[in-house]
Amino acid sequence: MEYLKKPAVRPEEETEKKVADVAAIIADIRKNGDEAVRAYNTKFDGNTRELFRVSREEIDAARAKMTPEEIEDLEAAAKNIREFAKAQLNCVKPLDGVSVIPGARLGHRVIPIASCGCYVPGGSYPLFSTALMLVVPAKVAGVRRVAAVSPTVKGTTEIDYRTLAAMDIAGADEIYAIGGVQAIAALAYGTDQVKAVDKIVGPGNQYVAEAKRQCFGQVGIDFVAGPSEVLAIADESADPEILAADMLAQSEHDRLAKGILVTTSRKLGEEVMAAVERQLKALSTAEIAADSWHNYGEVIWAESLEEACAISDEIAPEHLEVCIREDDLEPVVEMLTNFGSLFIGQETGEVFGDYVSGTNHSLPTMRASRYTGGVWAGTFLKVCSFQRYNREAMMAVAPLVSRMAKGEGLMAHKHAADIRMK
């Protein structure tokens, strides 16, 4: 393994200050409710609206601004996401009739959560695709109340019209023009205008991520997301121009985003680096993409595909592309275990997953793919066990329970078993 391009060390955030700032906002909203939400909306977004919930008239006005083609594009993307979510849901089945001893019946039920909040970022870009990725699988899973939130366009009282239309097309039951920490706190603890939810999903900036972390327990979350990242494993057969384009597609997200190339060809690595510089000259988002690539982009030369896979699994990227010879694809894919979403073959660009392939683009970052996958229909489900004993089964296990409870010193537990045998 050798670095052809080594990244700078990402700056340590002012963690203590951030944690304290977020905690103060959450505490203020818990105490002062809508008044505090309104104050932070005004302070951070210039959003002075009194009623946070977006009306049907506002939604219709947003849809009216869309061209027919834009509406059709959103509906086509939503359809693909919906169909894949339905297929995923079909894999999660109730279980019944398991009998480990005569007279016992065990199983589990698959139960949708009652409500969820979907955080759709605003910031530098109107990420309307994220509205589809969060709301659609929640509705497919059977969540009765899906509340979508998003910051308003800076200095206005309105969510970007494309994001608002996407939320509506996706099937959101309620939409609120609230962003940032105040949106997470309102969804977690509730205010007069915003009823609390059971789970919050969706990406955001470092303050939104910290707010989700602090509210976890009061409310469920998907995961704590950080800056976006892509890793591509490539051999000499890959196209350097395509790989460069994929590195920049990730880099333009923000200045802390990360594009990583792991290649078995030193020549390809050098060609990709040269192609990135050429493509930057024609890129309208070059200011952000260049900062991200120059500071945090990585190009790593690996001696073999096996070593490339080991490097990738250690990094555990959010998005993982495999751009190698067709004959090697299947064995390499089998070696890979740590990734948020996998893109197999050069034709399968990561950007397709961002929008229309049907898989979800709300994915784990910062090595979290070691222990979790991304948002899917199952994110919004609870798998809850049940058991039923007849007297024969009860009499068979009660003595065992009694002895184990006694061994732990829990005498009321022992009594609860013993009393049933009398």
UniProtKB/TrEMBL annotation:
MF (Gene Ontology): histidinol dehydrogenase activity; metal ion binding; NAD binding
Cofactor(s) the protein needs: Zn(2+)
Positions of substrate binding: S228, Q250, H253, H319, D354, E408, H413
Matching PROSITE patterns: HISOL_DEHYDROGENASE (PS00611)
Cofactor note: Binds 1 zinc ion per subunit.
Keyword vocabulary terms for this entry: Metal-binding, NAD, Oxidoreductase, Zinc
Family affiliation: Belongs to the histidinol dehydrogenase family.
GO annotation terms (biological process): L-histidine biosynthetic process
Residues involved in Zn(2+) binding: Q250, H253, D354, H413
Residue numbers annotated as active site: E318 (proton acceptor), H319 (proton acceptor)
Protein name per Swiss-Prot or TrEMBL: Histidinol dehydrogenase
